[in-house]
Amino acid sequence: MKRRAGEREKSMKKKKLLEELGKDRLPYMTPVDADFHQLWKSRYSKLIFRKSDTVPEELHQMVQEAFLTLREHDCFFQDLVRIKGKDFVTPVSRILIGNPGYTYKYLNTRLFTVPWPTVGYDIKYCSPQIHDVCKALIRLNDYLHIEAVKALQNLVETKEINDTTVIDGEQNFATSLAEKESISKDESSCCVQADNYISLKNRTSYNMTLLNYMDPLQMLYLKQEPYFGMGDMAVSWHHDENLVERSTVAVYSYSCEGSAMAESDEEILKGRDPAVWHVGLKVAWDIETPGLAMPLHQGDCYLMLDDLNMTHQHCVLAGFSPRFSSTHRVADCSRGTLEYIFGQCELALQNLQTDLDSVALSLKSLETAVIKQVEEIHNEVEFEWLRQFWFQGKRYLKCTDWWLKPIAKLEEFWRKMEIMTSLVLSEFRKEERIEEQRAKTIRCFLLVLTERQRLRKEWTARCQSEAAESLPEDRKPECHPLWTDDECNMSLPYDLEEVIADLQNLVQWVE
């Protein structure tokens, strides 16, 4: 509900902004503009740019080989995302690599990490090459973490509060973090004054990287940037979702410059070179401040520090050549790890007990709050984990089978929760006379079941959508769990319409 309200608000803001603009376009700057560095310094100073020659050559080689290996093994996947109630296949292909058991959710789609090598975890990769890929990306992750800590320390030392003093204005747009003279801290004005080193470290402890790949020449259509006239967009204007607040996002970019990187046929009078990839930035929902378009070449990196991802929006502007990127982030995994969801399952199953003599199952409590909590966890396991995982087909098996065991364990817990739901129904049906307090419990139970029925219909439709059917066979969504009424190993039907109708009748007797 909250997400739908957010989408409506964003849509209204975009509509209002475009109405204010009419046929006009807002101004934007690139490094060829005289005032580019002044604009960067004054309004975009929490964007830190590092040219490729500042990154160790050995790291470049490892990471770029990793990108090419993933492409060779067909490990980049177009995601099936949901926007305003409709399913779309993303123009960019992606893969998520990171901490074992972590996930990342964007646009109603949960991605599951291909785990990188981690002490204490037995991870079997499909080939030695995939192992080397994950090893290279954790090396890049460690490097970008160190660079981001330096940048945030610099932010503190320069009293950064209103995007004023991080960039030193050099005409090349690589920012020196180490050579700036230390400025004494002003405790009253520094926006990150209370942060100590540990806090800075936590805001840069990347737990995953979302890798992206796109070949613009293979795309039938790319959206045009609507506000500034910046040209083809690979990724539209957005804030990155589900991140730890004020955490840094770090991006390594690699465009395959070569024969496809010919000069544009058009004479470029002003604006960005359409042959070159750029990252675009703008102040969110602002029509006064010019936008920024930063060229991206092989091995360039950039950091979005502190609250930049909250106060500004960014997009990716397509060039002519294929491009890879590795976007390292501190994802908010408070509800997105195996540890979390297994903990939820354990909490729910505490209400299930087994009779030692008859081995019959029963519920410990029929209190409204307990039933509500268990059934909400039931929904969470089914729709945030099981259906999300199988919705992405068999893509993860191209890299590792690591997720199959924990997903099977989650399904085992979910089946027990299906039994718990049937036990609640049995208890309600036993009662000849429904008291008001019990009616209150049934109403609460009905709300959760109605939501379950709605979501099952939605997920079934998503798996059969035109967008889903357009995907390759091994990437088509699988509607799972799914069963028929004839399957005796399930305690309840897949379609809950009759169950819901029976409960509604029980409640009506009281009313």
User: What order do the helices and strands follow?
Assistant: HEHEHEEEEEHHEEEEEEHEEHEEHHHHH
Major sheet details: 8 strands, mixed
Number of strands: 17
Question: What oligomeric state is this?
Answer: single chain
Rg on CA atoms, Å: 26 Å
**What's the mean pLDDT score?**
87
Q: From the helix content, strand content and strand pairing, which structural class follows?
A: alpha+beta
Cα-to-Cα separation, first versus last residue: 29 Å
Which regions have little confidence, pLDDT < 50, spanning 5+ residues? 160-195, 259-269
The rough form would be described as elongated
List keywords for this structure.
5-stranded mixed beta sheet, alpha+beta
Describe the structure.
- The chain has 511 residues and is of the alpha+beta class.
- Helix content is 38%, strand content 18%.
- The chain contains 12 helices and 17 strands.
- The strands form 4 sheets. Strands 2, 3, 4, 7, 8, 10, 13 and 15 form an 8-stranded mixed sheet that branches. Strands 1-12-11-14-9 form a 5-stranded mixed sheet. The chain has a two-stranded antiparallel ribbon with strand order 5-6.
- A hairpin with a 2-residue loop joins strand 5 and strand 6 (109-112).
- Helix 3 (57-72) crosses helix 4 (128-157), helix 7 (338-349) runs antiparallel to helix 8 and helix 7 runs parallel beside helix 9.
- The longest helix is centred in the N-terminal third of the chain and has 30 residues, at 128-157.
Gist?
The protein is an alpha+beta fold and 511 residues long.
